[in-house]
Amino acid sequence: MAGRELANKWLKTEALLSNAVVAAHIPQTRLYSVDSLRSMLHQFGMVVIKPLRGGGGYGVIKVTYAGGVYAYTYMSRTRTFSSFEAMFRSLNRVKVGRKYMIQQGIHLARIAGRPIDYRVKVVKENGVWVYRSMVGRLARPGLFVTNLCKGGTMLSARAGLSRSLGRKIAASKKREMRTLTNLSIQILEARFPGIGQLGFDYGVDRNGKIWIFEVNTRPQ
Predict the structure, then answer these.
(1) Contact 199, 214 (CB under 8 A)
(2) Can you state the angle between helices 157-165 and 167-191, rounded to 10 degrees?
(3) What is this structure's pTM?
(4) d(CA 187, CA 117)
(5) By the 8 A CB rule, do 35 and 41 touch?
(6) How far apart are the C-alpha atoms of 92 and 20, rounded to whole Å?
(7) Which residues of 177-202 are buried (b: 16+ CB within 10 A; e: fewer)?
(8) What are the angstrom distances between the C-alpha of 114 and each of 7, 30, 110, 138, 210?
């Protein structure tokens, strides 16, 4: 049974931010605006903007600021600008016609220079939440999005964690991901009764910290 669906990423992010333990693992997130983009870029140096609705990496754009140079990357193409205003004008022409949110950029652990993130799928069967899969998604060379439909490579979560962070901490990171998933399920089910399946997108940065990028109620 599919259960209730919630397309809006912002609503689910807001719910998870209500819990202090989970909130510590969510990148700073704001609704898209010129002021928020400028301030977050100057604070973090890298942000990711993504449509509030949609999946598969569609419409996701990485924006960076370093050494006085602004840039954004969509798919494999990067454009650079000498001013924020010029970059913002160009960015608004590239964005798909829908509402966006801005998320603090995370420097992911990598395998052979390619970023990797993780998808955890859970479903409710006979009143009990069951883990269906925990997999790593390795970005196609040259891309920053890891989605399999964009050419990413799937591998087991343990293999991804071992190869990107080292075998010694892979098991503990996998356990931590499960703990965060279980806590997040409780929060989301209390806020949105009727959900029947969830897909969690996790990232692990170069220092081994786990981040929750988003949660889908209709995971692909």
Answers:
(1) no
(2) 130
(3) 0.87
(4) 23
(5) no
(6) 34
(7) beebbeebbebbbeebeebbbbbbbb
(8) 29, 27, 5, 7, 17
Instruction: Report d(CA 159, CA 174) in Å as an integer.
Output: 11
**Per-residue pLDDT tens for 150-178?**
667 789 999 999 999 999 999 999 999 99
Q: How confident is the model at residue 105 (pLDDT cuts 50, 70, 90)?
A: very high
pLDDT grade for 1, boundaries at 50, 70 and 90 = very low
Mean pLDDT of the chain: 89
**CA–CA separation, 70 and 78 (whole Å):** 10
- Give CA–CA dist 98/89, Å, rounded: 16
Angle between helices 167-191 and 9-17 (to 10 degrees): 100
pLDDT in tens, 127-137: 999 999 999 99
Buried b (16+ CB within 10 A) or exposed e, 119-135: bbbbbbeeeebeeeebb
Tell me whether residue 10 is exposed, middle or buried, using C-beta atoms within 10 angstroms of its C-beta: 0 to 12, 13 to 18, 19 or more: middle
